[in-house]
Amino acid sequence: MKQVSRGIGLVAHDAMKKDLIEWVLWNSELLMGHKFYCTGTTGTLILEALTKKHPEVEWDFTILKSGPLGGDQQMGSRIVEGQIDYLFFFTDPMTLQPHDTDVKALTRLAGVENIVFCCNRSTADHIISSPLFMDPEYERIHPDYSGYTKRFQNKSVVTEAVESVDKRKKRQK
């Protein structure tokens, strides 16, 4: 049977770090063989916990900066580059985050790229127990944004801008 290796993002707000670490340890056998991208503190703590539980396993971790220090944006770039298939982001619903705009941007990118995304343990439990998680045939649908990216293709925006600047410069002379 073909081995499945997913790109998995792991992020947790401070009040949720212990919860995410416990979830990862509980599911560690299912998580072996996958590639992980984690924000700084979360990734460091999870890798330490996994190494204690499974000292014989070589885990594939990329540890980014701390979320508020740019790690959320680094995670977002990995999503856009297609390196992350699943994002487990345990959020703290009771605490206002100083980097809330970064969190919203990351959430938006997960939706734009149509990756599997969850923000709590219950949803994470359902995702990892889904047969699709280990199904080598499953591939997410990649949205087609070509209509959006080509929206100016047959429009004269550049020509109009050049003509506008030329007119203004002629008037100033």
TrEMBL record:
<comment type="function">
    <text>Catalyzes the formation of methylglyoxal from dihydroxyacetone phosphate.</text>
</comment>
<feature type="domain" description="MGS-like">
    <location>
        <begin position="1"/>
        <end position="173"/>
    </location>
</feature>
<dbReference type="GO" id="GO:0008929">
    <property type="term" value="F:methylglyoxal synthase activity"/>
</dbReference>
<dbReference type="Pfam" id="PF02142">
    <property type="entry name" value="MGS"/>
</dbReference>
<protein>
    <recommendedName>
        <fullName>Methylglyoxal synthase</fullName>
        <ecNumber>4.2.3.3</ecNumber>
    </recommendedName>
</protein>
<dbReference type="InterPro" id="IPR011607">
    <property type="entry name" value="MGS-like_dom"/>
</dbReference>
<dbReference type="InterPro" id="IPR036914">
    <property type="entry name" value="MGS-like_dom_sf"/>
</dbReference>
<dbReference type="GO" id="GO:0005829">
    <property type="term" value="C:cytosol"/>
</dbReference>
<dbReference type="InterPro" id="IPR018148">
    <property type="entry name" value="Methylglyoxal_synth_AS"/>
</dbReference>
<feature type="binding site">
    <location>
        <position position="99"/>
    </location>
    <ligand>
        <name>substrate</name>
    </ligand>
</feature>
<feature type="binding site">
    <location>
        <position position="13"/>
    </location>
    <ligand>
        <name>substrate</name>
    </ligand>
</feature>
<feature type="active site" description="Proton donor/acceptor">
    <location>
        <position position="72"/>
    </location>
</feature>
<feature type="binding site">
    <location>
        <begin position="39"/>
        <end position="42"/>
    </location>
    <ligand>
        <name>substrate</name>
    </ligand>
</feature>
<dbReference type="GO" id="GO:0019242">
    <property type="term" value="P:methylglyoxal biosynthetic process"/>
</dbReference>
<dbReference type="InterPro" id="IPR004363">
    <property type="entry name" value="Methylgl_synth"/>
</dbReference>
<feature type="binding site">
    <location>
        <position position="17"/>
    </location>
    <ligand>
        <name>substrate</name>
    </ligand>
</feature>
<comment type="similarity">
    <text>Belongs to the methylglyoxal synthase family.</text>
</comment>
<feature type="binding site">
    <location>
        <begin position="66"/>
        <end position="67"/>
    </location>
    <ligand>
        <name>substrate</name>
    </ligand>
</feature>
<keyword id="KW-0456">Lyase</keyword>
